[in-house]
Amino acid sequence: MNPSFQLLPEQASATARHLDHLTIYLVSVATIFTVLIFACVFYFAIKYRRRADHERAVEIEGALPLEILWSVIPFILMMVMFSWGASVFFEMSRPPDDAMNIYVVGKQWMWKTQHLEGRREINELHVPLGRPVKLTMTSEDVIHSFYMPAFRVKFDVLPGKYTTAWFNPTKPGKYHLFCAEYCGTLHSGMIGWIYVMEPAEYERWLAGGQGESLAASGQQLFQLLACVNCHRTDKPGRCPNLEGLFGKPVQLATGEIVKADEGYIRESIMDPSAKIVAGYQNMMPSFQGLVTEEELLKLIEYIKSLSKLPQQPGLVPTAGQKAVAARPAPGVNR
Ligand code: CUA
Prior knowledge:
Layout: H1 14-47, H2 64-93, E1 100-107, E2 110-115, E3 120-122, E4 124-128, E5 133-139, E6 144-148, E7 153-157, E8 163-167, E9 173-179, E10 192-197, H3 199-207, H4 214-224, E11 249-251, E12 257-259, H5 262-270, H6 293-308, H7 319-326
Parallel strand pairs: 1-5, 4-10
Antiparallel strand pairs: 1-2, 2-3, 5-8, 6-7, 6-9, 9-10, 11-12
Helix pairs in contact: 1-2, 4-6, 4-7
């Protein structure tokens, strides 16, 4: 057989294998029953055909065993589809806790990817082998769709919102990246490559980039935009203290409680009056149009890093936190 002809794309993640098995099951059940039903239609059409003009059919009052059989067998087959489908769905939608986060920004017509350590790429994404990767994705303009067939990942990338997808690469190599949502003239050119590298090779590649970590750039931006004047950590400020905020529940003025995730922080920067924290005034200006999607990611990473700071001396900070801690904050009164 021609090796370039494949029914299914290459499998480069564990999820890809699970999804393919499910697909094969669904297609097999559909095929078997289609063939069976059509065979019965033809067989009975011939067997019970009208042989003479005066021939009358005999009425049959039903057959309980037969009816039970054709209800129970499809029920079991469908329940297998349901439970198997649900388990694969949950596997695909829940990134493991230890997944490394990579940001993706879609834009007419390119994919921009951003590693937390600072390295940025366009229409390319380098990832280490055997480590789950979580993608946090957004768009600068219209709806795109991040599609990596070899990992069976295909997820809409929406403006004004973060969506997440994850995959665990199990095979080194170079794999296709597509945009799978028609997004304008050069949609078909919005393509790229995913490189799955051996971990050591990946570390070397990562170290080859210049620049600082996303959290450190975020901290600079936090000073530059004067966020720090109101969101103080040293004394009570006019706006909430952001230390330890990320991932925690926040009580709003309306009494509602929301979780401080990426989407909440994004909204609080772009549309601060949407959710007012209990005990504070609606006084923060909107940064809509003043910060780009990529700058937002930096600010989010900075706010995340504030939650990871060691609570007491003796805890070992991560590389990102060291970068934040080591950098003197410019423009701040000390
Ligand atoms: Cu982006 Cu199609």
